[in-house]
Amino acid sequence: MTKYLKLRSNRIIIKCILGIIILSLILTTINSYSNQNFEKYVAIVNGEKISLNTFQNMYLIEKEKQKKILGKKFFALNKNKQFIQATYNYVLSQLINNILLEQYASKINLDINDNKVKKMILNSSLFEKNQKFNEAKYFDYLTSINLTHHEYINLIKKKLNTEYFINTITNSNFVLDEEKENLIKLLSQKRRIKKAILDPVSFVNKQKISDSESYDYFYKNKNNFYIPEQFKVEFVQIKLNDFKTQCNDQEITQWYEKNIKQYSTKEQHRYSIIQVKEKNHALSILHRLDNNEDFSKIAKEESIDPISSKNGGDIGWIYVDLMSEEIKKANLNQNNQISNIIPFHDQFLIIKLNEIKKSEQKKLSEVYNKIKQEIETKKSIDLYDKIQKKISSDLDKNNKQFNIILKENNLTSQETDWFDKNSIPKKLNFPKLRKIIFNKKIQSYPHFIILNNNQSFFINIKDVKNKKMQTFKDVKNIIIEKLKLMKSINETKTLSKKIISELKTGRTNLFKKFNLSFDNPESISRYDSNSMTSTVFSLPHPKDGKKIYFLHKDKNKKFFIVLLDKIYNEKFSQKEKNVVHEYLEKNFIEMIFDAILKNLHEKSIIKYENIEII
């Protein structure tokens, strides 16, 4: 039963991959083979080029899709450089994944029927004349794209081969043994790194900042140097918990007798299920149950529901008013009664009622404390509501008279220190309160605000200081320290890059000059939360003993020269391998494709061309 929700998202993911492959079939067929040797390209995947023309067409198609999805928001986003770059990266990655899957599918040699290729060509509107296939038009087209008939057939076979490969995985539990092992290798892979730290703070004191530099920075950024508008607020916080009440035994007894139906247990039923894909399979199981075979044993062996099958089909106790439609249809009302076959999302269920717990009336002693709490809570709410209504009424009569209302309701206010939008006191940090405090149009008189969490506020803006620009003298020292750090960060970055360039050539002059050393090795896995994990696992495998270095900057502006020291696999036990295999076979299709593509990326040589496209 639980698998259905997962499969819906899987199909969407695979449709996206398949959609771009079919789209690419059209585009590459039309565009990629004219002037192939001279055309610009955006990337080369294992020697196979992705042409600039193909990329531009795909990019435009993606833009049209975004327009339909985003509507008016698209035109604002389309001016955003990050959004444009994200779209660029998405289209390019999809095209690369497309080629990787094509290349992989061709190695598997899935059988593509020649009749299917023939039928596709004969039914294409591209080659029709008078609504019939025209041979001359077909060969004219091949001439225009510099392809022979044989080359064109092979191209279509290549595309259909990939489509067939994806459909095979999507529509079945087909998983190659090789891919099972590849996934295990990906999950078990560890990468050992060593780090040397360059902290910009250590270079700050050597930085020199002239008066002209600091003033120039102040002049260019003067709008950032001001004391913001500040506020002083007096308020009363009223909480439901402030109203403590009590009740006696007589009140509790009267409440129990008046609401006696509330104090009984709900009827519950305990069920087990067997879930299968085929109706004939369900019929054969029903026949076995009719012959008194054990329901629990069959559920463990035959049910495809991953959770209940491990418990002999048991799905636990269910209240009668919370039963699913499938269980209601079964209409079971006796212990150990078994249903007929129940359709369920293109699959089939057999349901067993194991046990019934009837509704029972609870004694007063069993619910005494609960009733006591209910009565006291109701009394507190009544008092809380009463004071709310009184303050609201007084505010309508005595608008702007904060102190008078306090006195009439015997309330004592609190007063804040000066604060601005970035330093609002925690007690007042609620959206409704912020809106009133910082709204000049309505802040001149008291407000009573009721919040959703059983508390309310009576507030008054006591005083306001207007926004004030700071002088250069006020902020000179702050600017100098800021500029020193900025210079230090840039110097550290430049130095780090020079050190890495030296290390790549085997030299360590700069590394030693600045007394750097690599710390103890650290092993990370693909799913660690380390900030550099994604970078480490995007690096290629070292070849011919060549060391791989990269530069990483953390959120504290520290720079790390990182050495990829070793790539190895942790040994998985057979039990762990079985878990992975079972995980795959439960139709987690996106995991399969993710594993295939990650493995293909690791084994492939992908070169990118820097071309101004967007």
TrEMBL record:
It is found in: Cell inner membrane. Its main location: membrane. GO terms for cellular component: plasma membrane. It holds the Pfam family SurA_N_3. Keywords: Cell inner membrane, Cell membrane, Chaperone, Isomerase, Membrane, Rotamase, Transmembrane, Transmembrane helix. PROSITE patterns: PPIC_PPIASE_2. Residues 266-355 form the PpiC domain. This is Periplasmic chaperone PpiD. It comes from Buchnera aphidicola subsp. Diuraphis noxia.
